[in-house]
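Incident log, structure service

09:12 report received: a user says their structure output differs between two submissions of the same chain.
09:20 pulled the input from the user's history:
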Amino acid sequence: MKSKEIRDLTDKELKELITDERDRYIRMKLAHKVSPLDNPSKIKNTRRKIARLKTELKFRELNK
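09:34 re-ran on a clean worker, output below:
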């Protein structure tokens, strides 16, 4: 997801997306511990996506 796409989301959509991505991240970590994923870099990419979303949300809160 590009920065422009993240900025275009509403606050509610950002919070929902963060929750969804966190759930996905937890499930991927658990699945990777049980049996290795085909592409373990997906875990890193998901973690970074969560960080980008949280950064944008925090930026909006500080600007209010």
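09:41 both user submissions now match this output. Likely a transient worker issue. Closing.
09:42 reviewer note: The chain has three helices and no strands. The domain at 3-63 is CATH 1.10.287 (Helix Hairpins).
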